[in-house]
Amino acid sequence: MTDTASGRGPGSMVSSGDADVSSTVLDDPVGESLRGHHAHLARRVGGTAAYLPEVATFAAVLLEPTPSDWADLAALLGPGELADLFSASVEPPADWAPVFSLEGVQMVADPRAPAGGVPVAADVVELGPADVADMLALTGVTRPGPFWSRTDELGTYWGVRENGVLVAMAGERLRPPGWTEISAVSTAPQARGRGLASALVRTAMRHVVDRGERPFLHVAAENSGAIALYERLGFEVRRRVRFHGHRTPGGTPEALVRP
């Protein structure tokens, strides 16, 4: 697929600091992460892999899966379970029941994108295990995407607290070679419109670039406000994607209708 913003193909080379970084790995960010930086958070059967359930729902098969690969993924997840294929272009067999489908875009940032500063009176702090309950509470309200009890183990997260309450956060998720995905960008309703999300994304971007990697992210195609924010921060659309999930065959009727 050609980049609708720049005309680059998915296998192109892009500059990150003094080195060139292949964007090909972004065609399979879940699989590349599970085979690499996040291997310690993976479970596997054959050539398929998925994150531990408390970390993320994402699963991966090969870019050109065979019927036996789908059988391996079904065995890995269990009957009637969610196979969250994220942005993978593959389609499972016909007996895998669709659960959700959402159009989105994948965006990448120039490493020279604006770093910016933190808004006045807002102190950005690094979050840790002691903050997980508050992170779950905030993402439960803002719903930026799946966030579970061990999602914070995917990378570093930052937040802003006011009167002890976590009102904004952002952090790192997928880690294909040479790249880090910025995710969980959340601002509580009472704290919106003050630039907190922008400050937190910039904090994450600086952290990624300082590590010698390049930031990328995903966003729903219908979320024009978020896309405009990310474009102001130096991101551009690399490709259009479809987020989709399916139920593995088997299981009880109750399991098949679980959200």
UniProtKB/TrEMBL annotation:
Pfam families: FR47
Record's protein name: Ribosomal protein S18 acetylase RimI-like enzyme
InterPro entries: Acyl_CoA_acyltransferase, GCN5-like_dom, GNAT_dom, YpeA/RimI_acetyltransf
Organism, scientific name: Modestobacter versicolor
Domain of life per record: Bacteria
Domain (N-acetyltransferase): residue spans on this chain: 122-259
One annotated GO molecular function: acyltransferase activity, transferring groups other than amino-acyl groups
PANTHER family registered for this protein in UniProt: ACETYLTRANSFERASE, N-ACETYLTRANSFERASE DOMAIN-CONTAINING PROTEIN
Disordered: region residues: 1-30
Keywords: Acyltransferase, Ribonucleoprotein, Ribosomal protein, Transferase
GO cellular component, one term: ribosome
